[in-house]
Amino acid sequence: MNIVVADDYQCCVRQLACFSKLRGHTVTIYETAAADRQELLERWTQADILVVVRERVAVDAELLESLPRLKHIALVGRHSKSIDYDACTRKGIAVTNGVFASPIAPAELTMALILSSRRNVVTEANRMKAGLWPSTFSYRLDGSVLGIFGFGVIAERVARAASGLGMRVLVWGREGSRERGAAAGYEIAQSQEDLFRRSDVLSLHLRYSPQTAGAVTPADLACMKPSALLVNTARAELIESGALEHALAQGRPGFAAVDVYEHEPVMNGEHPLLKLDNALCLPHLGWADRETFELYFGEAFEQVRLFAEGGELRLVNPNVVIQRH
Questions:
Q1: What are phi and psi of 280, to 5 degrees?
Q2: Which residues, in sequence order, are CB contacts of 75 under 8 Å at separation 6+?
Q3: DSSP 240
């Protein structure tokens, strides 16, 4: 089988133990994003099996028409809104996914962003490398309020870590989030406005869906403190498009730390947040530790092995008539 790994942006796949599952096949790995659709087609045209990471690359009906050899798409992760599953089913392309999700890496990165932003870690490290000495004060976490919007398994770990540092946790979200937050012993905000108004640090942990898209509005951001920090390691689309950049320019909130963007990858510094001194930006590293890679890629590569050997697959599109040859 000719296998294409479409988007190994961390250049890690060959180093993973699970890569051995692809032994005996022809494997091509791309570590940078395609410049345009034509380059994407050139990369994929000979692929029998395509391994893709969640929403990094869009696989639509028009693209599928130009990939006559493609028989299987192995999704790294559980979900993707960038694959046209109906078109795959019509063309007899099996789509498989993973079942595991670990909250550990994104929770750790959330705390890393909070600490780095509040204590000016990146700014001061860069200034020192430039031969300068500290430029301003930082903000203590102990005694401050951590607002959590959406209380799931990632948020629960963040809340525990923040509590250990002396932060007071304030929770808001749908009824289930509020119930889980209360059961864990945390204070529940009176409203979404109350959450944004009182938080010194506000971390987004909503699950993305059509119902939660744009859940954070310009009005929410405008009522935050000038000293407050907004952290987003969940999904960029949870915030109304363009609202965070405008809010930071207006000074409410005073700071943001983000790991997710509406269109990824962000190349050549072409994002408004990268031009703002009060925004700390990382390139979607929330899930990117070695253990998570072994878990997620391992699931995808196992589905590739099963496809090639005629085994039973975990199908996203169960009605597809599989074509293995």
A1: -105, 120
A2: 52, 54, 83, 95, 96, 97, 98, 300, 316
A3: P
Active site residues: 235, 264, 284
What are the C-alpha distances in Å from 282 to residues 223, 261, 269? 25, 10, 12
Q: Does the reported pTM lie above 0.85?
A: yes
Q: Tell me if 28 is assigned to some domain.
A: yes
Q: Which domain holds residue 212?
A: 104-281
- Reading the block at residue 106, the tokens are 């994104």
Residue 166 maps to which CATH number? 3.40.50.720
Furthest C-alpha separation in the chain: 65
Q: Cα separation of 114 and 117, whole Å?
A: 5
- The total number of residues shown for the chain amounts to 325
**24-81: per-residue pLDDT in tens?**
999 999 998 888 889 999 999 999 999 998 777 889 999 999 999 999 999 998 888 8
236, 159: one domain: yes
